[in-house]
# Entry
Amino acid sequence: MDNDTKVLELAELFKYFADPTRIRIMFFLRDGERCVNDIADGLKMTQSAVSHQLKILKTSKLIRSRREGKAVFYSLADEHVQLILETGMDHILE
Amino acid sequence: MDNDTKVLELAELFKYFADPTRIRIMFFLRDGERCVNDIADGLKMTQSAVSHQLKILKTSKLIRSRREGKAVFYSLADEHVQLILETGMDHILE
DNA sequence: TCAACATATGAACGCTTGCTCATATGTTAA
DNA sequence: TTAACATATGAGCAAGCGTTCATATGTTGA
# Structure
């Protein structure tokens, strides 16, 4: 991967963290997996808006999904996601 | 600071990392401070575009500036900036 | 198979953002 | 002060993005 590609992908990655709704969703998933409806209820958002954002987060590999019957459960993809969130938070709180 | 404010500020922070031009500028500053013209030359951008982005990065406290004669030198603000960039890069390269 | 529920998706709209172009401000040397 | 250089800024435009609304797809139990 050349440098230009790295820069583009890095900017792309941070773009997914650059929205309050997605941050809230990722924070909401820190305690473990949740289904779409629970996320929508918990964050007081429409099911549609949540689902759109979940798709974006999943496509970007920041979250995972698992179907169980009618429900689809989402969870954070790996510890990088948490680390990025926490480093950002450290910066904010400084 | 309440949670809503934290989320908004965190999203705001990542927004500044979410642009290839700003990433390139920050990478360009990793080796030490540089003046506006050197950045524009090094990144093959117009002086105006660079200056606009530098203002954004400085307002958001991701970079610092220091005037020396006609030139203004910019540098990364602190180690959080580097850490966020590096953690993001680790994620990309995984 | 059909009704009820859970989730996903497409279109459209309003808002934001990064660029260019033109111009303004700041600084030094003469 | 004035010319020359370095940097900053304002207006305007094109592209991208998050939401809502309407609808489609997927799944289960009867």
Notes: The longest strand of chain A covers residues 63-68. The interface with chain B takes residues 1, 6-11, 13-15, 17-20, 22-24, 27, 80-81, 83-85, 87-94 of chain A (CB under 8 Å). Residues 35-37, 47-48, 50-52, 54-55, 67, 69-72 of chain A lie near DNA strand C (CB under 10 Å from a C1'). Residues 3-93 of chain A form a domain with the Arc Repressor Mutant, subunit A fold (CATH 1.10.10.10).
